Amino acid sequence: MEAIGNAGTAIGILSKDGVVLVGEKKVTSKLLQTSTSTEKMYKIDDHVACAVAGIMSDANILINTARVQAQRYTFSYQEPMPVEQLVQSLCDTKQGYTQFGGLRPFGVSFLFAGWDKNYGFQLYMSDPSGNYGGWKAAAIGANNQAAQSMLKQDYKDDITREEAVELALKVLSKTMDSTSLTSDKLELAEVFVLPSGKVKYQVVSPDALSKLLVKSGILLHVLASGDCLNCVRGPLICDTIWSFHLSINWKRLIRQFLNIFNFGDSPYNSFIMSLLSKLRCITVDVTGTLIAYKGELGDYYCMAAKSVGQPCPDYKRMHEGFKLAYKEMASNYPCFGHAAKMPNIIWWKTCVRDSFIRAGYHYDEETFEKVFRRIYASFGSAAPYSIFPDSQPFLRWVREQGLNVGLVSNAEYRYQDVILPALGLNQGSEWDFGVFSGIEGVEKPDPRIYEIALKRAGNIKPEEVLHIGDSMRKDYVPATSIGMHGLLLDRFKTSDAEEWRKSGAVVLPDLEAAKEWITSEKSAR
Predict the structure, then answer these.
(1) What is residue 13's DSSP assignment?
(2) I want to staple 10 with a disulfide (CB 3.0 to 4.6 A). Which of 51, 232, 403, 421 is the partner?
(3) Which letter, b or e, does each residue of 414-432 get, where b requires 16 or more Cβ atoms within 10 Å of its Cβ?
């Protein structure tokens, strides 16, 4: 699985008139002779092709096996082998290598694209275990989670092959490790049906790829990035763009991008000089930044006790008891018991029981079980939380700028699966990926949790990420220590805010102010 995770990203998209496969070619050394053949795409039969990620020697064995199986079927039945039958046959071979000692699994994942008379165009994904499934859009290799998240957001059922190509290039440009996407760093193949009824497998040439990159606007994005600032006024533009004989509209658009880099009163100058132009991702803390607790802790403990006929506990004692119990549990079993493999509900049951005992309340087992179930259900819902009014608009605005949004929080899995969606903060519309301590086993202020976020964002550089939080110790210091930009919110006008500013941190009252700062020239200073 490590070999697959380190391999270049491959993306497959099923459209109504074909299947598109796009793969990133990883150059491991500048001394390596560039291959003239494809590295990621392979033809199995006239009607089936595949993209691979993983150990190439393993892939070659399986591809040759699939080719033999396809030809044997054609020889026996005088018709092409159904796509799913071919995939299943190959996956049976892969699964067999997981059953016996002395054999190791094949270290490769596949995306299969094909067409047959039974089901038309099809896309399948297969992993080393031999499992496979049909997909409308899928990604394998490095940064596949980030790619899958973007595909889930932008894929449409009635997408055409041309739109699928543009979507695949867009997703790959935002998830690949390289800072820019050019024709020599990727491969593009398509499976479609000709007017004559013949199935065609076609690998797009580098020249055609360059034109597609310009048409989709990706090359323009590369020109607008800081890496290409020095070359914008040079002859490179004429050599790489004007020679493509683009339409007048595209030439006008390119001129607008070139004007950005002029030293005049261009309306785009403030954007180029702002921090936003240098970012590829913004990570955000959750509690205190996007959402807040509603009411007091005692409210929910009181309701739980009353629901079983018990008197309401004293709020102050309950609050102090919980603080001590939570601190001890977090010390003995950090990250909600992740390392100890303690179930989430057991961690919280131990903490809640100790909270009551420290507050001076002792329930019998049956009564405590009922009280705890009520408390656990309450804090696993949206009831105890409120979302700040600027949270959802801000997250959506960031994603509209083409940036990934990541959530970094010392929270357990219910934040990701239940609480945030219930509050209207959904993965795919407000955020792209989450790094939660109860899932990852690392918690703030450990800088490793931010390193995980960088990987989830596509192995991007720390200087391409801004982290927004409400704690100097847990958010600002660890994030900036690894090279990320930092921004603190002081929503509740805390007494520490002035000290934060004196230490050099940017401190703002809310996300509206954060948006203005990110797009201003001040943010780049």
Answers:
(1) E
(2) 51
(3) bbbeebbebbebebebbbb
Quote the crossing angle between the two packed helices 56-77 and 83-96, to the nearest 10°.
Answer: 130
Please state the separation of Cα 346 from the chain's center in Å: 30
Alpha-carbon gap, residue 405 to 302, rounded angstroms: 37
CA distance 355 to 361: 9
Comparing C-alpha atoms, which of 508, 498, 392, 256 is closest to residue 520?
A: 508
What is the rounded distance in angstroms from the CA atom of residue 253 to the CA atom of residue 259?
10
The DSSP string of 473-501 is IIIIHHHHHTT-EEEEE-TT--TTHHHHH
**Cα angle vertex 90, ends 88, 95, to 5°?**
90
pLDDT of residue 25: 81
Which residues sit opposite 342 in a β-bridge? Answer: none
Expressed in angstroms, the distance from the first to the final Cα of the chain is: 42
**488 forms bridges with which residues in the sheet?**
469, 507
Q: How far apart are CA 491 and CA 494, in angstroms?
A: 8
182's CB contacts (< 8 A; 6+ apart) are: 210, 213, 219, 222
> Token pair of 311, please?
């008197």
Q: For residues 67, 72, 74 and 76, what is the CA-based torsion angle, rounded to 10 degrees?
A: -170
Take residue 186 and report the two structure tokens written for it. 């990727």
Residue type, 178: S
Query: Do 447 and 415 touch, CB atoms closer than 8 A?
Result: no
Whether the CB-CB separation of 284 and 290 falls below 8 Å is answered with: yes
Task: Give me the amino acid identity at 335.
Answer: C
Location of structure tokens 């929910």? 300
Q: pTM for the whole thing? A: 0.52
Residue 217: DSSP 8-state: T
* Best CA proximity match to 15, nearest among 119, 87, 121: 121
* 230, 201 contact by CB (below 8 A): no
Extract the tokens encoding 225.
């990035």
Which parts of the chain have pLDDT scores under 70? 1-2, 27-38, 177-181, 216-273, 524-525
Describe the strand order of the beta sheet including 48-54 as a list of residue ranges: 41-45, 48-54, 108-116, 120-126, 132-134
Q: Which residues contact 488 (CB under 8 A, 6 or more apart)?
A: 468, 469, 470, 471, 472, 475, 476, 497, 500, 505, 506, 507, 508
* Residue 282 β-bridge partners: 405, 466
In the 8-state DSSP scheme, what is residue 124? Answer: E
- Please name which of 51, 48, 40 lies closest in space to residue 66, comparing C-alpha atoms: 48
- Tell me: the pLDDT tens digits for 127-171? 998 999 999 999 998 888 888 888 998 899 899 999 999 999 888
Residue 80: both structure tokens together: 């092409």
